Structures are given as structure tokens and as C-alpha cells.
Amino acid sequence: MRKLMLTCLCLTAFAGSALAAANKDAAAAYARGDYAQAFQLWHALAEKGDYDAQAMVAFLYHDGEGVEKDLVRAHMWFEISRSLSPANEQSWHDASDALDLTAKNMTAEQIAEAREMAQTCQTQNYKDCD
User: Fold this and answer.
1) Which of 62, 82, 90, 109 is the least buried, fewest Cβ under 10 Å from its Cβ?
2) Of 76, 45, 44, 40, which Cα lies nearest the Cα of 58?
3) Which tens digits make up the pLDDT trace of 8-57?
4) Where are the domains of the chain?
5) 99 touches 55 (CB < 8 A)
6) Which CATH architecture has domain 2-123?
């Protein structure tokens, strides 16, 4: 899981979008161990539809860094990130792998809950998903 997170961190650190500065600030906060700040910054970007930030929010939920560990929310954000990532990009593969790894530690009921939450979150345009 750490390898996937580091890959994702590298992708967000060099993103070529208008959100790149905020992603870099979040990555810097994470690198210095300020997980709560990293979560806050990535979460704000996730609510704007940034699929790399959505994946990072999922990793933070998965590992309980800056936020209480929550596999259901991690699965939800990985699923959303994967749905927005272009299928031919590494971010899609990373989110897919992380989604599969997360699901291995969840019950069928938890996975169903996460999928329902993902659908609701998407219909709410990624706002108030947590």
C-alpha cells in the first residue's frame, strides 16, 4: 500500500493543472508528518473532483493518518477516484489496485455500503461525502 501511496504522491506533486500548487502543499504537509493538514488540503481538492486528491484522501482513511481509520470511506474515495481517472493513466491502475487491496479487509456489507456512499457522493458533486 505504501508503494501505491508514494506513486500517487509523485503524480500529485507534478500535476500540470491549476490545482498543482494545492496538491504540492498537501504533499509537503504529508511529507513533514502533518497528516491532518494534508487531509484537509486533499479533501478540499477531492470535493472539487480532483481524482488524485480523492485517492490521497482514500489512502489517509485507509491508514488512519490525519483522520480516524475508516475502510468504508477509503473504499468509497478509491472507487470515486477510479471512476474519474482516465483508464489509460497510472492513476486509474493505482486506484484500482488500492480498491482491491482495501476490499480484501472488508465484509460484503461494508463494500456495499461504500459503493452506495460513492454513488451518493457522485450525485452530490463530491460535496459532503464524509
Assistant:
1) 109
2) 76
3) 544 444 445 557 888 999 999 999 999 999 999 999 999 999 999 999 99
4) 2-123
5) no
6) Alpha Horseshoe (1.25)
What sign does the dihedral 102-105-107-110 (CA atoms) show? negative
Residues in the chain: 130
What one-letter code names the amino acid at 19?
L
In the 3-class helix/strand/coil scheme, how is the chain assigned residue by residue?
Answer: CHHHHHHHHHHHHCCCCCCHHHHHHHHHHHHCCCHHHHHHHHHHHHCCCCHHHHHHHHHHHHHCCCCCCCHHHHHHHHHHHHHHCCCCCHHHHHHHHHHHHHHCCCCHHHHHHHHHHHHHHHHCCCCCCC
